[in-house]
Amino acid sequence: MSERFAGRVVVVTGGASPIGFGIAARLAREGATLVLGDLDSDRLQAAADELGAAAHAGDLSRRETAEALISLAGRPDVLINCAGGGVILPTPAHTEETLRATIDRNLWTTLYCTLAALPLMARAGYGRIVNIGAESVRNGLYRHAVYNAAKGGVHAFATGLAREYAEHGITVNTVAPAWITTPEADARLAAAPEAERRDMAGFFDRIRATIPMRRPGTVAEVAAAVAFVASEEASYLTGQTISVNGGSSML
């Protein structure tokens, strides 16, 4: 595998999550010096130990935590905003708590980490910011309205920044996965009560019907897209949404 990220400092938020860890592992194999952030301190430390990364645990929807993470990186070359996770429910079933949790985890984490990294990248004249968005923003996926409100903000933030910072050598793009399968999600589903498993089976049938390839994607497929967008090779790519989606939307 190439050393595309040799000498580059890469910050991955949500680095203890399945997708965040998969992205970090891919970039580590290509030579990146990693700094990981996540809310789950135990899983984060295990991920950092496995990848030889620095780590900072805490709630990245709080500005001081985001700034501490970026400060740990020194001068980040690449920022992967992967912290997220929403409460997926029929819209009327959301509570004040789930509404705020979904916006905080996805939008505020991205805003604060990016705002902390931008001045450092601008002074260096180089930066790659990759937001992990969501295909559901494009296809209006069942039960995803509130999640889409948060991820839609992430998508829009990227396009605005891309234009604003293009002359500073900084590119800003979004990688938007569709349904991605992970061993952790499969294990949680297997351990769920029967009624929940039946409900989720119907839910996944609805998702599968939107995907021409009729299968979920993998973490490795998302990580491969992120690795390209985050690299020097993608120097003329900015303000774009790259959908890793099996064809569920086509533009």
TrEMBL record:
The GO terms describing molecular function are: oxidoreductase activity, acting on the CH-OH group of donors, NAD or NADP as acceptor
Keyword Oxidoreductase listed? The answer is yes
Q: Does the keyword Coiled coil apply?
A: no
Q: Which organism is it from?
A: Amycolatopsis acidicola
Instruction: Indicate the family of this protein.
Output: Belongs to the short-chain dehydrogenases/reductases (SDR) family.
What InterPro entries is this protein classified in? NAD(P)-bd_dom_sf, Sc_DH/Rdtase_CS, SDR_fam
Q: Which UniProt keywords apply?
A: Oxidoreductase
The lineage's top-level taxon is Bacteria
Instruction: Give the protein name, as stated in the record.
Output: SDR family oxidoreductase
Instruction: Supply the PANTHER family for this chain.
Output: 3-OXOACYL-[ACYL-CARRIER-PROTEIN] REDUCTASE, SHORT-CHAIN DEHYDROGENASES/REDUCTASES FAMILY MEMBER
One matching Pfam family is adh_short_C2
